[in-house]
Amino acid sequence: MKTYGLRDIIGPIMVGPSSSHTAGALALASMARKLFGEQPERAVFTLYGSFAATGSGHGTDKALVAGILGLATDDPRVADAFALAKAAGVQVDIVWDTTTEVAHPNTVDIRCESREGRTLEMRGVSIGGGAAVIRRINGIDVDITGERTSVVVHQRDERGVLAHIAGVLAGCGINIANANLHRTAKRGDAYTVLETDSAVDASVRELLMDHPDIINARVVPATCAGDGEEVPMPEDAEERFARWDYASGEELLALCEREHVTIAQAFRAREEALCAKQGTEAGIDAYLDRVLEVMGNAATEPLGNPQPSVGGLIGGEAAKLRAALEDADPRHRLVDPLAARAAQYALATLETNGRMGVIVATPTAGSAGVLPGVLLALRDERGFSHDQLREGILTAAGLGYLIARNASVSGAEGGCQAEVGSAAAMAAAAAVALAGGAPDRCLAAGANVMMSLLGLVCDPVGGLVEVPCQKRNATAASVAFVSAQIALSGVQNLISFDEAVAVMDEVGRGLPPELRETALGGIAKAPSACAFCAGC
């Protein structure tokens, strides 16, 4: 099971419009590029499942090309990836396979070809929130998450090869965290995949290649490291992480009581321990400062400079709402200033997302407006400070981690309840924490949201993260406030947070495919939506 950290839940910082379909796709292509060892002359992408059904509207094709070119997830040039590929002389072919059944809805096969005829075939899946896993390399099943730096060795299955690999890494002072051998048959082709506790220098590849039965070796750097430099892993890193790790809401509450800390403090300590275990500087405050900066820009720029989205379905809604709420007639103001401000920011963030601007996935791009809407409104209307907002984000991450770990934050897996529902639960917990509520009240607020939004389907019109996504983000911010207020009032829940997460997971997996981000059901099938798509 993947060990989720801060940047998995609050992040990635990325170009929109979808964390799983854009950032996750880019991450997969980036991993393919690293495995291939260079920029290919030709790349063929075959998309399956939800990738194939909605990938065009989500910019999945552009993201894949951007990853092959080596662009980062927050590079604004992602939108121009095809033109960049043409300029670089990279031939790109996209195959939209909507009929072949695959195990995961966000699946892509990537084939890289060099001028000399060298090839790589890789299958990967985007598991939500921008995270990606390699499932197959050249026909051999593997499991590479990117959680740690990986050394991938293509070899002939002969005696002495594994001893050579282990000896090289040991001689370079590199500790092996996990090792797996995947082979086609005895004495056939094989791949050894090793996860390490620290970074691996490029020179290690040359040492590994100094064996007649090793065909190739590549290093895939960790994709979830902190912002700082690589550092030696402390001897007590595992013990520290075990002290602060938790797997359920019940365990989180026990941890907070045992250590006399808030959820934000507990999650901060867990993140510091996790980064120490991974051999990286945590850089938590610097990362949170950048998160708040990006959130602020994404939530305010469309208010003064509205722009149409890529799909053309949204653009200017936040500015219209602000103008309407400034109307002198109080009868036209149906919500209080706090909820109104949150709605404006949520609408604006989805506008930024829809035009492939830079946003923070919280926990996904499709739900990126809820948490900023709530936090920035609390800052403006209640006077909370920058430092307090950082604590609110950590509280949100503390709950979001549990949802991602024990259920899903992917619309393709669990419907919109897994995206907007999770975001609103996180935002409600953050609001309670900022208001001085205890950890149990934060979890109660999260459970209130999940029960209120249970069964919310994912039905993007035309496969675009625009309609109904934008308005759901705005209304979910109000749900978060109401749920938080109920929890702060001391109202007890029959259903616990952990039970609510489990039920959400069960309901999400029981939804038919048409209601899980395929744009084949729900609002996406309404006559007006179909009429719009007919002109695409």
Structure description:
This protein is α+β, with helices and mostly antiparallel strands and 536 residues long. It folds into four domains: 1-144, D-3-phosphoglycerate dehydrogenase, domain 3 (60s Ribosomal Protein L30, Chain: A, 2-Layer Sandwich), CATH 3.30.1330; 148-221, ACT domain (Alpha-Beta Plaits), CATH 3.30.70.260; 237-278, no CATH class; 285-534, no CATH class. The chain is built from 21 helices and twelve strands. The chain has a six-stranded mixed sheet with strand order 3-2-4-5-6-7. A hairpin with a 5-residue loop joins strand 4 and strand 5. It is globular. The protein starts with 5 loop residues before the first helix and ends with a helix. The mean pLDDT is 93.
Assembly type of the chains comes to single chain
Biggest sheet descriptor: 6 strands, mixed
Instruction: Determine the fraction of residues in helical runs and give it as a percent range.
Output: 40-55%
- Number-wise, the strands total 12
The amount of beta strand, in percent, is: 5-15%
Q: Which ranges are low-confidence, i.e. pLDDT below 50, for 5 or more consecutive residues?
A: none
Q: Rg from C-alpha positions?
A: 23 Å
Strand order of the largest sheet: 3-2-4-5-6-7
Shape: globular
How many domains is the backbone divided into?
4
Mean pLDDT: 93
Number of helices: 21
Return the structural class. alpha+beta
What is the terminal-to-terminal distance? 40 Å
Pathway: Carbohydrate biosynthesis; gluconeogenesis
Catalytic activity: L-serine = pyruvate + NH4(+)
Domain ACT: 150-222
InterPro entries: ACT-like_dom_sf, ACT_dom, ASB_dom_sf, Fe-S_L-Ser, Fe-S_L-Ser_bsu, Ser_deHydtase-like_asu, Ser_deHydtase_asu, Ser_deHydtase_bsu
